[in-house]
């Protein structure tokens, strides 16, 4: 099945800093999403981005499907950005929505 | 309010007992999913359903069962055959199997 990797596994930032999170996947995908899991466990949808670039406030994402990666950019980070960021992909067979292992982000005041 | 409701938020059960986790959605979505998350780990797919009265096993279906008798509801039963049932369980839904998925708030199950 499709493999999903995320890097870095852990990231510690000072408030106000920028960061880039990466998601690599091993096969073509029909669907790619980025999520933020808050400290209470809820998964918040950030982007649905099988290809191209999207922006939402301080966050933006780019997926280059032909090169099998996606990037999540966080600018001017805030303490509320802390948590785990997951990317998830649906492979071309459409059988399974596979999550990466996540990037744990800690933003310090 | 439209959304996905999981209940209860916390559940404690004795070893050997079956337990059913509830997932309801009022988004009119066809597809629904159950995931399991262990501490510090990603999510793993237990079961999914693309349409009413149909469901498919995911990567870790052993020891679990589901039903999809109504479009709005996709309950998950954790049976006594599940070796390590203590985990955080998340339910999701999407318009169809290929589209954006939305998650409920999760149920934290502890088996003692």
Give the gist of this structure:
The complex is a heterodimer of chains A (109) and B (112). By secondary structure, chain A is mainly beta.
Please tell me how large the radius of gyration of chain A is. 13 Å
Largest beta-sheet details of chain B: 7 strands, mixed
Major β-sheet annotation of chain A: 6 strands, mixed
Which band does the percent of strand residues of chain B land in? over 45%
Distance between the termini of chain B: 35 Å
User: Which structural class should the secondary elements of chain A be placed in?
Assistant: mainly beta
- State the helical fraction of chain A: under 10%
Regions of chain B with pLDDT < 50 over 5+ consecutive residues? none
Beta-strand content bin of chain A: over 45%
Number of strands of chain A: 11
Radius of gyration of chain B: 13 Å
The rough form of chain B would be described as globular
Cα separation of the termini of chain A: 41 Å
Q: Count interface residues per chain for the largest interface.
A: A-B, 22 and 25 residues
What is the mean pLDDT of chain B? Answer: 94
SS-based structural class of chain B? Answer: mainly beta
Structure, explained:
- The complex is a heterodimer of chains A (109) and B (112).
- Chain A has no helices and eleven strands.
- Chain A is mainly β and 109 residues long.
- In chain A, strands 2, 4, 5, 9, 10 and 11 form a six-stranded mixed β-sheet that branches. Chain A has a five-stranded antiparallel β-sheet with strand order 1-3-8-7-6, with no helix packed on it.
- Chain A is globular and about 45 Å long.
- The mean pLDDT of chain A is 94.
- With 112 residues, chain B is mainly β.
- Chain B has strands spanning 4-7, 10-13, 19-25, 31-37, 43-51, 54-57, 64-66, 76-78, 87-94, 101-103, 107-111.
- In chain B, strands 2, 4, 5, 6, 9, 10 and 11 form a seven-stranded mixed β-sheet that branches. In chain B, strands 1-3-8-7 form a four-stranded antiparallel β-sheet, with no helix packed on it.
- Chain B is globular and about 35 Å long.
- The N and C termini of chain B lie far apart (35 Å).
- The interface between A and B is medium-sized, with 22 and 25 residues.
